Amino acid sequence: MNNFDFYNPVRIVFGRGRLEAIDQLIPAEAAVLITYGGGSAVRSGLIEKVKKLLGNRRVQEFGGIEPNPRYETLIKAAGVVRAQKIDFMLAVGGGSVIDGTKFIALAAACKGEATDLLKFGFRRINHPVVGDVVPFGTVLTLPATGSEMNDGAVVSYGNGKFPVMSDLTFPQFSILDPAITFTLPPIQVANGVIDAFVHTTEQYLTYPVDAKLQDRMAEGILQTLIETGGLTIREPENYGARANLVWCATMALNGLIGTGVPQDWATHMIGHELTARFGIDHAQTLAIVLPSLLEVRREQKRAKLLQYAERVWQIFNGTEEEKIDGAIQKTRAFFESLGVKTRLSQHGVRKDELNEIVDQLTEHGMTALSETRDLTPAISRTILEKAF
Questions:
Q1: Interatomic CA distance for residues 135 and 124, integer angstroms
Q2: Mean pLDDT over all residues of the chain?
Q3: Cβ(384)–Cβ(347) under 8 Å?
Q4: Are the beta carbons of 103 and 117 closer than 8 angstroms?
Q5: What is the rounded distance in angstroms from the CA atom of residue 144 to the CA atom of residue 276?
Q6: What is the CATH number of domain 11-180?
Q7: Where in the chain is the domain with CATH 3.40.50.1970?
Q8: DSSP code of 91?
Q9: What is the CATH number of domain 184-386?
Q10: Residue 58: helix, strand or coil by DSSP?
């Protein structure tokens, strides 16, 4: 097992009816900015319910944070934080709203050019140009990204998507009430299942370092998603199934299963470029890329792919190659069973457009991806070609 530091200060408030905890979790004298997305939180009555729970606190709202939140939108919200002297934010939404709120907090405290924040990449240190950051909490409405219990965000700017990570942007608390998610459209639930699944494989399907506990936890998340993913789509008000999805999505990316192990993230980096160029949902890009990446990288990942085949998919018979083939096939079939397309051609992408994706990867510095940093743009092209 590799050396590691682990730090996660987020308070999780989980279960049915836990929204009322807001009143105890946010300071009574706080000036609060509620951030949210496209309006479903308003139409469902959730924003009004949150405002009532905030009582006599001074409350402002900032809606319209997009899926794959855009820098330009978030900078406007940072201006509201400064102008209105906001001292607490509450993100009500899914991963995009929570990611956006993290960036708003950094941008509002930034002493220089806010675009410099996009240069954080995967650094986890506090940036010297950022002062005191406004604290925030979250009310999760879409289980998928794990943003409710980590310090990371992804922000869209120009033709790219940029990861921003800082110890300054852990939520103070996150309220996870599975019942709040009952009204989600089936495709959004499917996207959440896939997002959590691929978050897990990015930290698990690398190479062995004798991290037995981390492996078992990752396998448990994957098995639970396989068991309950389809069920929670078919039965959206099945509280038990939805509760398991919510907790799997949080645990998949709160840092715990990634401690002491190599991590990949090439599927995400390639997927980000597909979203930026073609507007394909983030999770659906992962469903497109992962099976092809596993095929292309089967030698580098052989030991873990065999472990994945046996422990997650219970494939015990056949040669090593047959086991790996079976695991990849079952992965693709699982995504498709959720109603998600796993081929670029199914999204109307043409093969002659692959050059643009490879050029974007190069432009954004994604030239040495994977857990072994040897996945070049040429290999990314091969993965994309197999994804047709």
A1: 17
A2: 94
A3: no
A4: yes
A5: 19
A6: 3.40.50.1970
A7: 11-180
A8: E
A9: 1.20.1090.10
A10: strand
Q: How far apart are CA 222 and CA 248, in angstroms?
A: 8
* Segments of the chain assigned to CATH 1.20.1090.10: 184-386
Q: Can you point out the beta strands (E) in the chain?
A: 11-14, 31-35, 58-62, 88-93, 136-140, 152-157, 160-165, 173-176
**Three-point CA angle 18, 189, 235, nearest 5°:** 80
In terms of pTM, does the model score above 0.85?
A: yes
Per-residue pLDDT of 163-208, as tens digits, reads 888 888 999 999 999 999 999 999 999 999 999 999 999 999 999 9
Among 301, 307, 388, 313, CA closest to 351: 388
Tokens of 178: 């599975």
**Spatial CB neighbours of 260, under 8 Å, sequence gap ≥ 6:** 1, 2, 3, 4, 209, 211, 214
> What pLDDT digit, counting tens, does each position of 103-146 carry?
999 999 988 788 888 875 545 455 656 778 999 999 999 999 99
Spatial strand order in the sheet of 88-93: 11-14, 173-176, 136-140, 88-93, 31-35, 58-62
How far apart CA 269 and CA 273 sit, in angstroms, is 7
The answer, yes or no, to whether residue 317 has pLDDT greater than 50, is: yes
The CA distance from 129 to 78, in Å, is 15
Q: How far is CA 224 from the centre of its chain?
A: 18
CA 75 vs. chain centroid, Å, equals 21
| CA–CA gap between residue 369 and residue 385 (Å, rounded) | 17
Instruction: Give the chain's largest Cα–Cα span.
Output: 67
The residue written with tokens 């047959």 in the block is 322
Q: Rounded to 5 degrees, what angle do the CA atoms 291, 292, 294 make?
A: 65
Within 8 A by CB and 6+ apart from 255, the residues are 6, 7, 8, 150
- Segment 340-361 mean pLDDT: 94
In SS3 terms, 132-144 reads as CCCCEEEEECCCC
